Amino acid sequence: MKRVHLYALSALTALSFFPALAAENLPDLGEASQASFSPQLERKVGEAIMRDIRANRDYLDDPEITDYLNGLGYRLAAASPNNRQDFEFFVVRDDTLNAFALPGGYIGVHTGLILATQNESELAGVLAHEIAHVVQHHIARMVVQESHNNLLSIAALALAILASRSNTQVAGAATAVAQAGAIQNTLDFTRENEREADRIGLQIMSNAGFDPRGMASFFERLAQSNRLYDNNAPVYLRTHPLTTERLADIQNRLAGMPYRQVPDSLDFQLVRAKLRAEAGRAEDAVAWFDAGLKAQKFNNEVAQRYGLVAALLRAKQFPRAGHELMQLQKIAPAHPMIEALAASLKHAQGQDAAALAIYRAGLKLFPFQRALIYGYADTLLALHRYAEAVKFVNEQFKVRANDGQLYEYQARGYAGLNKPFLSHRALAEAYARRGNLTAAIEQLQIALKTGEGDFYQLSSAEARLKELKTLDAAAHH
Q1: pLDDT tens digits for 31-41?
Q2: Can you give the pLDDT at residue 323?
Q3: How far apart are alpha carbons 189 and 108 in whole angstroms?
Q4: Spatial contact of 200 and 80, defined as CB atoms under 8 Å apart
Q5: Cα 430 to the chain's mean position, in Å?
Q6: What is the CA 405 to chain-centroid distance, rounded?
Q7: Hey, what long-range contacts does 315-319 have (CB within 8 A, 24 or more apart)?
Q8: Averaged over 49-53, what is the pLDDT?
Q9: Is 174 a residue whose pLDDT tops 80?
Q10: Where are the CATH 1.25.40 domain residues in the chain?
Q11: Residue 45 DSSP SS3
Q12: Residue 164 neighbours by CB distance under 10 Å
């Protein structure tokens, strides 16, 4: 029991990083434990957890990586049986191997896991498994069975994953606390959930056009890691118990499925190259990509050269980055990530007019790519072309009405045009879209004190302020 108490202390320490998730600030389950954990309540709980995750420094809000992960996730979710669930996939900057599902369809993936997958079907296998947990309502079942205490454990586990970063002792402690106090039949139920998630996940992968063997190959490597490094097992294994029986069951199911060779998408290869270019010291990343090109050891030359340019840009080796970019463009198809990288290089060299031209050309080919949209708006602002920036952003709202980043660019544009009321109003919406209701309320209060705005604008702002205060009050009760 002493060991459990030590685990409990560590998990409470992890939770102290996220005071907003104290018990009194989670949505009140009321009689949910006696009846059902409704989809509406699941989403509310998930949103409460996500507010703290988004505020954490390890939440990776990169438009290219996030959009890729969501595109892959939506493809899988669309192929899942009886799915009426909204999903949001997000990335956590952490080199440990982990992925996790939260109430309400929120699924997080560590950067370390993305890099550890050897092909796209392996990554799809992990996501399919997590999607299966959601569509089979495993989290809801756990909450109903274990009442409100289990909800706190889920919150503790999800947030401690971020707080622990690569500290495996804290991560292990959080996992142990999430399981502490559970009776044996609950643990058996959890293992049954894992087998069910495997079965449904394999079906999802097959329906979505991926190789279901990707799930098996990745899990088998994790199992090998667990045997070789028993005291430092991947976090994923601590949150998803992987037994010999589970692996055998997966293999038995695969025996009845036809073999399917599925090539990796270029997006998958580029995203992994970008993550590797951003990891560790910039000089080490340059050396790694250089070595791979010299030895001809790479899965995809376009991705390898993309990663080299990204690493050189990060290392501020601009002349060589420009040279390597030209080599990349000779062999690469048109791709929004390469266009954005080329524009970023021009911006880093102080050539914003040239960067703007690249963004403009890229948007003609890829008009819905967030990295290009954000880059174009940001560069217009850098060139003090505030009216153009506001006009561009307002056009984008027709398609992306709830994009918090666009509201931030709009706020900067209005500030440049010396329109403080509109600037603070836009900044309020930026905060609101990111779940920071307190900051949103403060910005609206500042806007209303500027003495600007016509009757319609003031009435709209006052109504929005009242709405946000109601939402903020509900979120804390």
Answers
A1: 443 356 677 77
A2: 98
A3: 23
A4: yes
A5: 18
A6: 15
A7: 315/282, 315/283, 315/285, 315/286, 316/282, 316/348, 317/286, 318/345, 318/348, 318/349
A8: 81
A9: no
A10: 384-477
A11: helix
A12: 25
Dist CA 276 CA 175 (whole Å): 28
- Tokens 């998990």: give the residue: 11
- Binning pLDDT at 50, 70 and 90, where does residue 167 land? very low
Phi first, then psi, for residue 109 (nearest 5°) are -135, 130
Which residue would you say has higher pLDDT here, 369 or 140?
369
CA distance 129 to 113: 14
User: Which tokens is 126 given?
Assistant: 């992990």
For residues 232 and 229, what is the distance between their CA atoms, to the nearest angstrom? Answer: 5
Q: Are 126 and 57 in contact (CB under 8 A)?
A: no
Q: Name the pairing type of β-strands 88-92 and 106-110.
A: parallel
Residue 445 has pLDDT above 70, yes or no: yes
**What pTM value is reported for the model?**
0.84
* pLDDT tens by residue, 117-141: 999 999 999 999 999 988 888 777 7
How far from chain centre, in Å, is Cα 298?
26
* Amino acid found at 269: Q
The tokens describing 428, both together, are 């309020």
Instruction: For residue 35, count CB atoms less than 10 angstroms from its CB and return exposed for 0-12, middle for 13-18, buried for 19 or more.
Output: exposed
* CATH number given to 384-477: 1.25.40
Judged by DSSP in three states, 30 sits in: coil
Average pLDDT across the chain, whole number:
84
Assign 279 to helix, strand or coil: coil
